[in-house]
Amino acid sequence: MPLFSQTIIDYWREQFLNGDVLYSDEAFTVTVNPDLDEDSRIMVLETTDGRVRAVLTPALADKVGLYQRQDLSGPIFRRKLNEAGITLHGADYVFYFSETEKNVLLQEIMESDLRQLTEQDNAVFSEFESAASEQDLDDAFVELDHWAVFGSFEQNRLVCAASMYPWEDDTQIADLGVLTLTPFRGKGHARKVVRSICKYAYDQGYEPQYRCQLDNHASTLLAKAAGLTLFGKWDVISPNSID
């Protein structure tokens, strides 16, 4: 049995191998694709097996000087970006359920203090948001109007919520965010909410995706506690990059 679903493998292969492959060896591949969106005109993926893949537009490949190089590697590529004044945003860890953990998850029954939230929960959700810091709200990006929203309660109070939205219009991957109010952390709320919303995503035909910044240690620990497996580190060009 493969570690991850074919949906995930195919998605990332399409992101990084569509176009003209400029260089490829067992450790590093770089591809030029003229159809990349503006906010992803450079992307880098380092998977847990140590392999690095990069993709960028022809204009940026020319600016970086890749067409004149025959010897490439991940470190050389990043150095060439720096020399060209091009900066990346800062990598996210990307987690998914392995096929084995997915099968375990699909057998679970949602606990009684969890439920899906709807627009009828606007007052409850507003109270939840007002008890969270602006930084936590920005980092988590949990919204009541997202594709799916689940919450955990203590004494009828919403204390943890997770929401999902389709990662891209033409993919079957759903990206999630989760937020637990500070006084209620460490009690297992986030783990239960993440597993519940991910089970819902699978039931709807989607693969759940969990992302966090490399220095967000609490979020990394939550992903692992929820049964997710690290797929790799994904980075894109910074919005402030000069190119």
Overall geometry comes to: elongated
Order of helices and strands: HEEEEHHEHEHHEEEHEHE
Beta content: 25-35%
Q: Please give the domain count.
A: 2
Helix content: 25-40%
E-strand count = 11
Low-pLDDT runs of 5+ residues are none
CATH homologous superfamily assignment of the largest domain: Gcn5-related N-acetyltransferase (GNAT)
Provide the CATH top-level class of the largest domain. Answer: Alpha Beta
Mean pLDDT: 93
Give the N-terminus to C-terminus distance in angstroms: 43 Å
CATH architecture of the largest domain: 3-Layer(aba) Sandwich
Count of alpha/pi helices: 8
* Major sheet strand order: 1-2-4-3-11-5-10-9-8-7-6
For the largest beta-sheet, the strand count, sense and barrel status come to:
11 strands, mixed
Structural class call reads: alpha+beta
> Which fold name corresponds to the CATH topology of the largest domain?
Aminopeptidase
How large, in whole angstroms, is the Cα Rg?
A: 20 Å
Describe the structure.
The longest helix has 15 residues, at 189-203. This protein has an eleven-stranded mixed sheet with strand order 1-2-4-3-11-5-10-9-8-7-6, with helices on both faces. It is an alpha+beta fold and 243 residues long. The chain has eight helices and eleven strands. The N and C termini lie far apart (43 Å). The protein folds into two domains: 6-93, no CATH class; 98-227, Gcn5-related N-acetyltransferase (GNAT) (Aminopeptidase). GO terms for molecular function: acyltransferase activity, transferring groups other than amino-acyl groups.
